[in-house]
Amino acid sequence: MPLRAETPGYEYMSLDDFEELLADKPAHEKWELIGGRVVRMMVGARWEHARIVQNIARHLGNRLDAAGSRCQVFAETFFMKQAELEAATLPDVMVVCGDLTPGATSTDAPVVLFEVMSAGSEARDRFEKWHVYQRLPSLQHYVLVTRDRPMIEVFDREGGVWSGLRLFEGLDGVVKLDALGVELPLADIYRGVLSGG
């Protein structure tokens, strides 16, 4: 199955060309390259989106620190770039394990990726990005977070094979991320949005 299925009316380019394009764009604009397709990202998301992203990054980071993990959590500002996949994305939350080069602005080896879905981003997160992300050799969990109700979908890789989907609904659910050795309650993910706190 080819990585790129070009759709008329969209702009496509390589990662090298995309990086040249970024250099000419205003700093306040956000752009991604998804399987070679250039996508302008929305700036100024709803507060619920921002709060959920902050919750995931904070609670996940705290749990990793408590476990003595060397994994690091990044939220919305650190690129995942992979030239062979023609990808340069800004995941809502990304976990990277292992050392990063001093001064790096991207990684090609995320272990866990989270995308918080809205009506406008769901198709891109669920299909276009997943089409790219599942080809990342390092990725072990892809987590889709529904913004407006407590529902989490987790795709897991086991033994190098994507093994299916785990679905969590309700604020009493707990997402276990085996690759990190931590658990993340939905009540923490949605704290201040759909739950107290």
| Unreliable parts | 1-5
**In angstroms, what separates the terminal alpha carbons?**
46 Å
Sketch the topology as an H/E string, one letter per element.
HEEHEEEEEEHEEEEEH
Tally of strands: 13
- Overall geometric form: globular
Estimated structural class: alpha+beta
Q: In the residues, how many domains can be counted?
A: 1
Main beta sheet strand tally, sense and closure: 6 strands, mixed
Q: What is the topology, as strand order, of the major beta sheet?
A: 3-6-8-9-10-11
CATH hierarchy class name: Alpha Beta
- Overall pLDDT, averaged? 90
What percentage of the residues does DSSP assign to strands (E)?
Answer: 25-35%
Helix content: 10-25%
Count of helical stretches: 4
Structure description:
With 197 residues, this protein is of the alpha+beta class. It has one domain: tt1808, chain A (Alpha-Beta Complex), CATH 3.90.1570.10. The chain contains four helices and 13 strands. It has a six-stranded mixed beta sheet with strand order 3-6-8-9-10-11, with helices on both faces. The longest helix is centred in the first third of the chain and has 20 residues, at 47-66. The radius of gyration is 16 Å and the shape is globular. Mean pLDDT is 90; it is low at 1-5. Keywords: Endonuclease, Hydrolase, Nuclease. Residues 16-186 form the Putative restriction endonuclease domain. This is Uma2 family endonuclease.
